């Protein structure tokens, strides 16, 4: 009996090992899905606000009002409430419906994003200095030669996408209000990776342009475990677009309004508990 008992234990151990080996590990995509938002009492409000100040004021990639690239130790955001979102794609590229995603972002930012498909040749006016504040979304194939009439910004974006999967650029005026942004994504990326790119680059183009110090909660950290727009980033975006936060505000301005801003954000969450629910920002349900 002791021998049979030991044999049975050995068999069970072997079966457990084989089961562990044969069970597929969670994919990188599944592992990247953000965890649900904790109850308000469990939100790390101090860390959140510190990250918000850093991310909203240390924008390394902004273009200044004079066109010179330089760090920006102050808030930059869209002051306009209606923001056109021209979407351009190379021939044969399937464009997902951005409407639900932009509507969810509009609720968070108190803005109205207006997506519309346009051809590359008709995109020129959107890059003009007199155009209304705009976010251009470009899904480009770096191998495609482009159209002869496409704006220089798209041609440059196509070249840059040979080195990176996606990026954004933005231009603000001397008043620190964002005038225009370009979100460029490689069209040949797998659908899940394109979603990750759109989540990160579009929301960073709205003003959360720097990276956080701790990668465990936020999308805004290269190489971190979060690859989708998560509740932590959503709360920072809601803080940025609180009416009390103005373009041009510096870190001291934000710190002076800390308690007011956090109290207002908690009140919004009490009225709208699903404000930052990850499902609201999903692009997976659309072709």
What do these coordinates show?
It is a single chain. 36% of the residues lie in helices and 15% in strands. The protein is an alpha/beta fold. The protein has a six-stranded mixed beta sheet. The N and C termini lie far apart (61 Å). The model is unreliable at 1-32 and 63-70 (pLDDT under 50).
Spell out the blueprint of helices and strands:
Blueprint (H helix, E strand, L loop, with lengths): L1 H21 L5 H5 L12 H13 E2 L2 E2 L8 E2 L8 E8 L9 H11 L2 E6 L16 E7 L11 H9 L5 E7 L5 E9 L4 H15 L25 H10 L10 H6 L1 H14 L16
Parallel strand pairs: 2-7, 4-5, 4-6, 6-8
Antiparallel strand pairs: 1-3, 7-8
Helix pairs in contact: 3-7
- Count structural domains: 1
The number of E-state strands comes to 8
Which class do the helix and strand fractions yield?
A: alpha/beta
Order of helices and strands: HHHEEEEHEEHEEHHHH
How far the N terminus sits from the C terminus, by CA atoms, comes to 61 Å
Number of helical regions = 9
Q: How much beta, percentage-wise?
A: 5-15%
Q: Could you tell me the mean pLDDT?
A: 80
Radius of gyration: 22 Å
The description of the largest β-sheet is: 6 strands, mixed
Residue runs with pLDDT of under 50 for 5 or more positions: 1-32, 63-70
Please give the share of residues in helix. 25-40%
Order of strands, widest sheet: 2-7-8-6-4-5
Categorize the overall geometry: globular
Question: What is shown here, in short?
Answer:
By secondary structure, the chain is an alpha/beta fold. It is 36% helix and 15% strand.
């Amino acid at each position: 009996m002791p021998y049979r008992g030991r044999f049975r234990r050995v068999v069970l151990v072997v079966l457990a090992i084989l089961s562990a080996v044969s069970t597929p590990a969670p994919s990188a995509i599944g592992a990247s899905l953000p965890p649900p938002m904790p109850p308000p009492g469990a939100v790390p409000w101090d860390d959140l606000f510190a990250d918000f100040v850093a991310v909203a004021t240390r924008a390394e990639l902004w273009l200044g009002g004079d066109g010179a690239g330089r760090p920006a130790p102050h808030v930059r955001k869209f002051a306009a409430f209606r923001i056109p979102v021209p979407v351009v794609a190379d021939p044969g590229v399937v464009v997902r419906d951005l409407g639900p995603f932009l509507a969810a972002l509009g609720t968070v930012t108190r803005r109205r994003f207006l997506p519309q498909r346009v051809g590359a040749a008709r995109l020129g006016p959107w890059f003009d200095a007199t155009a209304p504040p705009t976010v251009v979304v470009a899904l480009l194939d770096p191998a495609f030669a482009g159209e002869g009439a496409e704006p220089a910004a798209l041609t440059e974006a196509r070249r840059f996408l040979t080195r990176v999967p996606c990026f954004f650029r933005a231009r603000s005026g001397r008043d620190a209000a964002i005038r225009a942004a370009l979100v460029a994504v490689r069209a040949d990326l797998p659908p899940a990776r394109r979603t990750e790119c759109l989540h990160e680059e579009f929301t960073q183009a709205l003003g959360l342009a720097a990276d956080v110090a701790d990668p465990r909660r936020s999308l805004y950290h290269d190489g971190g475990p979060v690859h989708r727009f998560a509740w932590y980033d959503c709360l920072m975006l809601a803080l940025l677009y609180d009416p009390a936060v103005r373009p041009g505000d510096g870190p001291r301005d934000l710190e002076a309004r800390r308690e007011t801003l956090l109290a207002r954000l908690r009140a919004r969450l009490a009225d709208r508990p699903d404000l930052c629910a990850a499902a609201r920002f999903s692009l997976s349900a659309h072709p």
